[in-house]
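Exercise (ungraded).
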Amino acid sequence: MKCRTCGSKASINMRQHKLALCQFHYLDWISNQTERFIKKYEMFTHFEKILVAVSGGKDSLSLWDILLRLGYQAEGVYIDLGIGGEGGYSERSRDLCLNFSKKHDQKLHVFDIKKEYGETILQIMQHSSRGQKKPCSVCGLTKRHVMNLIVRNYDYDVIVTGHNLDDEAAVLFANTLYWEGDFLLRQSPVLPSGNGFARKVKPLCRFSEKEMAAYALLGGVEYIHEECPFASGSSTIYYKQILNQLEHNNPGEKLRFYLHFLKAKKNGLFSEKRLDQTSIHGCISCGQPTSNNGKCSFCRMFDKQFKGDSF
Amino acid sequence: MKCRTCGSKASINMRQHKLALCQFHYLDWISNQTERFIKKYEMFTHFEKILVAVSGGKDSLSLWDILLRLGYQAEGVYIDLGIGGEGGYSERSRDLCLNFSKKHDQKLHVFDIKKEYGETILQIMQHSSRGQKKPCSVCGLTKRHVMNLIVRNYDYDVIVTGHNLDDEAAVLFANTLYWEGDFLLRQSPVLPSGNGFARKVKPLCRFSEKEMAAYALLGGVEYIHEECPFASGSSTIYYKQILNQLEHNNPGEKLRFYLHFLKAKKNGLFSEKRLDQTSIHGCISCGQPTSNNGKCSFCRMFDKQFKGDSF
């Protein structure tokens, strides 16, 4: 198989795109496609200050790499959840993010949950009812809260996350299986700012997990290969397996599912009147926007005195 | 396992409903539930004249059985597609329908495609471009055309089909995977009459294939066990397998998927403005309603002189 661009030996062959490329042109293709998606979905401009939420995984670190390649002003934030204790999952992930930031001479905010709130994510999970049932939702809530905090404190214009096509398609699949109207209406490569929330965008939403793994490998992006120990058995992994099966039987199915959804939504399939009916105001504890009366979901989850956001 | 109603030995245990029943109470439960769905979705009343489309399979013959049990005025129509020649699939299916109608002393219309149009469905498939790609769509189009014809000629109020939950969920799954907006908006247990089309309803839409097979078996309904030879490898069968896998891992998933869709639709998830934009008029050849200019899709499929609807 030869590279379509230069004719040298191809390093990667993408069945779903009917496209084979060598290492150099693959990295170039991913970057150019990312730039195309950033512009297509009006995610951000070269004049805006970007905060990349990095986890140490292949997607977010590759995303940071791509944005720097494309000349964007992108700084990072790593949220240290304290998973696995000393030398564990979180520490190893943090070190990879720090190495990346040093190598590229870019600022990385490290937000240590234990230091800020007195507890690791595991401890929060154990004493909150949310954590008993859905450990991943505790992380999600915490990360959203912290990202919003950093954006506000450091005046970033946009939060950029490394969600790839597999992530987006799995969430869409789950929301479709249960016809979760509000989530379907909100799912988008761009969540605009408003009501005190920062704009959030997902430039990798059209690349599969495999494509991003190939980018990290060929681009020399060092990342943590192991999965988060809490993710095992999660519904997201289960839906990803189902989608991989559909993809295996019909290459391109995953991307089609996601893109047809975006197109149908743009063409007015859904009734927009259902949105924006919730009133948003400041949490009485942390001041972040919430639809709850009184404390926001994050502060409720703690449900006890904590140090507060000193960051 | 004991019958929940009478305490005798249960014949069937439905994990997804957490319900075990004996033979007598199972037949009773299916009938009562069917009556409940007929009323809930306002399908038809005891004063209306019902035409049941029977194929010889477990679903449609069981449906006819249930409707008669419930005291409805239900007559049948069997569309003989001429599959498998003499003694073949269609002939055996027809005989089972005729036996049922005689046993219950109910009228059965037998509509012979070859006799009426000069060709079997296989011949139509072979010379139509539609048939080359999607054999099932040739049958679907033909059946819809004939059902509409019988309803108009014999003044029935409603066409009743035996689509079960597996059928409905598979169609919904396929339409969702491709976000086929128009199909999603139209999918419903009741398609109201209008524009010259008869009302069409699906009273079994909430029963799984297994539940219907159990009804036929326990109720002594004789049906053709083999699948249509053309159905092999169809996308519907593939989507049913995926849904069965989801159901196996999470009992009730299939029903939830379908019911949550109906609920979301009722609650206004979809924008209704997209519907009813098509103008409907009479086909210049057969007079049946169509959105095409000139001939309807059925007459175009033939695209040559045929005897016409002499039925």
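Further reading is listed at the end of the chapter. For now, observe: DSSP finds 13 helices and ten strands in chain A. The interface with chain B takes residues 176-179, 181, 184, 238, 242, 245-246, 249, 253, 256-257, 260-261, 263-264, 267-274 of chain A (CB under 8 Å).
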